[in-house]
Amino acid sequence: MKSEFLTSAAGRQDWPESTRPEIVVVGRSNVGKSSFINAFTNRKKLAYVGNTPGKTRLINFFTIDDQWTLVDVPGYGYAKMSKAQLEKLGKMMDDYFLHRENIAGVIQLVDGRHEPTADDVDMVQFFREMGYPVIIGATKIDKVPKTKRIAALKKISQKLQLPLASVCPISSVEKTGFDKVQSLIDEKRQH
Ligand code: GTP
Ligand code: MG
After folding, report:
1. CA of residue 191 to ligand 1 center, whole Å
2. What residue owns the CA closest to ligand 1's atom 31?
3. Structural domain tally of the chain?
4. 41: domain CATH number?
5. 110 is in which domain, residue-wise?
6. What is the pLDDT of residues 49-69, one digit of tens each?
7. Which residue, 76, 67, 51, is CA-closest to 2?
8. Is the ipTM of this complex over 0.95?
9. How many whole angstroms separate alpha carbon 57 and alpha carbon 54?
10. 60: part of which helix (H) or strand (E)?
């Protein structure tokens, strides 16, 4: 897979002019969005990974195989941000999700170790209303004992009201689960 950084955007004036389909990686802060992008593209430092949450502040666009665009966005639910910062981020994200015509699908990441949060449920509901196809990635699955994984995935699927087939267990540390995500992406971006 060929991957390259395209651009970062603080607002619509910076959105790339490309007409390529965009697949957006969303999820609460620290869930593993940037790690996912690096592991998925097999690059060590394509997206910035931090030890403290709230590291990604801009919308980052990466071109994949000269064909489509993977998008890294700031996480939600990060409490240690000022009200002004939160408002600014919220506006930037709303504008993107409501008005960006390239969006072909969303990879919603949730923490594989826990039940989805109320915010996770709201986000999925919002994407459903927008008509965006949603793929769920259950991250950090390496931290869930193997015997408990199926039950964890079922719970996530139930809580988010999405078919189990669209819930992919992934580990960016062990680099597992990407084939399934890849085939679901290929399905979505063809539409
Ligand atoms: P923000 O940009 O702050 O919204 O966070 P993010 O969602 O981009 O998370 P990031 O990729 O920066 O990862 C957060 C932390 O989780 C880092 O310490 C990662 O090393 C760790 N992490 C991410 N994915 C995995 C995984 O699959 N397994 C394990 N064990 N740790 C992970
Ligand atoms: Mg990030």
Report:
1. 30
2. 140
3. 1
4. 3.40.50.300
5. 3-189
6. 776 666 678 999 999 999 999
7. 67
8. yes
9. 7
10. strand 59-64
